[in-house]
Amino acid sequence: MNFWSKFLSSTKPRNAKHWPGLIHTYRDLLDIDNKTKVLTLCEGNTPLIPAPAIADTCGVIGLSVYLKFEGANPSGSFKDRGMTMAVTKAVANGLKTMVCASTGNTSASAAAYSACARSNGYSDVQCVVLVPDGFIALGKLAQAIIYGAKVVQIAGNFDQALNIVKELSQRESIALVNSVNPDRIEGQKTAAFEICDQLGGRAPDILATPVGNAGNISAYWAGFKQYNALGLIKNKPKMYGFQAAGSAPIVLNEPVENPETIATAIRIGNPASWKTAKEAVNESFGLIDSVTDEEIVEAYKLIHSSQGVCCEPASAASVAGLIKASKQGKVERESTIVCVLTGNGLKDPQTAIDVSGFAPIKSAATMDAVASAIGL
Ligand code: F0G
To answer: Which is it for strands 238-244 and 287-291: parallel, antiparallel or unpaired?
Structure first.
């Protein structure tokens, strides 16, 4: 029996259970008291998908690669983990206006949880999002709009938008729900908890993740350290973070004034959690590196066509980075690796079509015409 069939057959069949969301599940490990009313869309509990084709592509003997599919969260990205905490606590503290800067996913998530707050009796909660005009995937923009946020498209990039909302949030009754808000990091830690639980009480050897504003890699490391300190895991992973080559300030060790990449979600030149991301990498003996847009697109196609998993371009940076690191001999044999797929590919269908070289096959509506069109 090979590794994959052993893994799948060892998973006990169970009845589908209601998952109450990550705060209710991990409440004793999170900074929230028992009285606070939780705002949840039942986020978390995302699949850890075995990825043998990606393991093969890495060409390292004995690799077990999994994809932590965060696109399965309610608004389609890992941001929901931090947002359930941030909005729950902001609203509990009487704040009414949720504000964020975003490359798209944070805005979709903040808008969703603000709607959730309204449905839980906080009818005067509103959401304001600032996004770089022309540089966010259409699906994310559509989400923020339809969830009822006020969307401001600024003539600038994410870094400029973040500076503006930081200043704006000094005003009364405004909650800043970017990952500079510690409640966001607190919620996002739960992804590390889940991975350890899903692997049967141990951490992977390597956790590979895209890096933009650098909150998520910081949150994962905090989560692994906490589980380790509690004795729930004996090991800790090496943290491998990957930035897009045109937006790689941490790799270059200096801010990038005009960040560029096809992966618009991580088009960030001056990450807010720069310091904690570096600590995560250093303390875990990991690495931070960049991947080119070509490498991102190649990994993006591979994840879809050889694994059947739908992620957005930024998410593919984790897999692109793993492939690069393995080619450089930075991945040991027999390792267990988790690549985080941070967001759902359906948010950005235009990129999927653009990079696929898709040419429509048109046909008359008869069986013979279809058979001939497909060369049968
Ligand atoms: N992947 C996706 C799909 C993202 O949306 C982001 C960040 C990241 C990775 C990077 O995570 O910032 O914690 O290092 N998106 C933010 C946003 C910036 O506004 O949606 P990070």
So the answer is: parallel
